[in-house]
Amino acid sequence: MPLRPDIELLSPARDADIGIEAINHGADAVYIGGPAFGARASAGNPVADIERLVKHAHRFGSRIFVTLNTILRDDELEPARRMIRQVHEAGADALIVQDMGLLELDLPPIDLHASTQTDIRTPEKARFLQDAGFSQIVLARELTLEQIRAVAAQVDRATLEFFVHGALCVAYSGQCYVSHAQTGRSANRGDCSQACRLPYTVTDTQGRIVAHDKHVLSMKDNNQSANLEALVDAGIRSFKIEGRYKDMGYVKNITAHYRQLLDSLFERRPELHAASAGRASFTFTPNPDRNFNRGSTDYFVNGRQDDIGAFDTPKHAGLPLGWVVRVDKDHLDVQLDAGVDPLNNNDALTYYTLQKELTGLPIDTAQPLDAKQRLWRVVPKEPLDTYPDLRRDTQLSRNRDMNWVRLLEKKSAERRIGVTMRLDDTPDGLALTVSDETGVTVCAEIALPKKEPARDPIKGEAALREHLGKLGATIFRADAADIVLATRRPWFVPPGVLNALRRDAFEQLEAARLDAHVRQTRWPEVTPPVPYPDDTLSYLANVYNSKARDFYARHGVKVIESAYESHEALGDASLMITKHCVRFSLSLCPKQAKGVTGVQGTIRAEPLTITHGDEVLQLRFDCKPCEMHVVGRMKKNVLNRAAREEKASLATGVPMQFYRTRPAAAGR
């Protein structure tokens, strides 16, 4: 099946206002949390706000996807079903889901997308989800171009979606249980404690320290800017930006960055085009390095890389700024690097201590001492003696530039849809026909009791063009060549009459565009139901309700374990499965030693242990698929708290219910 030519830029939104700005900055689609059950517990939005965002997006033919990508208990299925109906009535275009139990409910005909939380790594899994009724599937971030091509060869209808920017979960999505095991906060239920960002001491089987207080599970941030064309050619059609917790400035900047990259690609490849209408222009130069980031990596797209980890710090160091030339009692003097923008009051600087710890230094005031020499005097917000190891020649970076912040707090983009306009005579007056760049056409007419030629034809024609082209209050644009005057001669038309004709035409066009926006409905399943690729499912399948169990049974699965959150996997278990390998990153991989004289054969993939405070986890290495398992067990206090919560739920009249394969333990 030929690949679709329309390419979708998909941006995140913490709330409706951020979503609206994502659309204004060029997003073809936006994903946003609904009132509940999204994989970001603190990023929910009321239905009224989703409806407001939908109305703005549909003006441009952009789409709105609502996230419902957590696993649900049985007692949550009916509230989830009601919420789905509400967001469908609000106009949402699709639902992003993880829990297969939702497919067994009586849902409105809303389009379904398979979340990255469904862990789509193989062509077989992708094809199954397509055949089960998903029109769009979010592939695992860990896939290579070759693996993406293999998936695309098997998926002949569904759109392939891929994350191109933002924070990286070190685990395969949906395959991390560390947070729940240690704190009871489930990543699969939108409440991850981010244990992967903590520092760990790594020891080998003999107790020797391999790495001390390193963030060995913390990844750099994803940045596929250099790989967009290769991803298009591999079969990706939706390019997703991570960040439903991110602020307005991040979404504006990163959306604009990828909008420009994709538009540049379309200019070189005219067979490709954007999935929505309109062209965005910006009042700033997008630069992803100016937002919070941990450094960048393209992860595994081009194969395993040496430098994918943010092992020194999970914080944002910022851009290089300069160095300290003098430290005084209450201030320091700073020499800026060539080409660096001036300092501002309330900027934030960073530097590394002698122990390689990233330390923040927020500025109270910044004053230029010698603009030509780029020398500045900085007064920090805290006393200088509270900043360790701050001395002459300390290298500084800036991770908050207030000039940049203020720039993005203002209106920073304008998105317009190109139109052509034609003014014609009618027996009773004039007709204005307007067609937009997608082919939507309307015609407005106005009566003129008496047509009078303009006294000066040249000035009369210019006046007609001027008033017809006044589109500033609309989302449309027309260049002079797009306005065709097809009347017998340039008439004198009072400005008020012409303005009314134009307003009528463009109000019709906006309404016609909204009418032309067709929401895709849910795909029917292939019948009879296709078999799931495996006939046995462990806790890794995240089956947390009886409807999910019924779904997999209907698709031929014989053995279905319950989710980790059901608390049946009580011994040592894989709490995280990841393509990231600590051994490889520490140059301790047997494959790295292959062919090295004196080293080959001396390094084995023996387990390692990582420790943070009283948290101890074991790293085990599965070298055939080149994967790492982080192994541990659930804490007793997590089990005890869960038992108390279950008991308390009985008193509410809505008892907590979820899928178990074994009877509940005594007291639960």
Automatic annotation (TrEMBL):
Gene Ontology terms, MF aspect: peptidase activity
Keywords noted in UniProt: Hydrolase, Protease
E.C. number: 3.4.-.-
SUPFAM superfamilies reported for this sequence: Ribulose-phoshate binding barrel (SSF51366)
Residues spanning the signal sequence: none
Chain ranges of the Peptidase U32 collagenase domain: 398-514
Class of enzymatic activity (EC top level): hydrolase
GO terms classed as biological process: proteolysis
Protein name per Swiss-Prot or TrEMBL: Protease
Organism: Sphaerotilus sulfidivorans
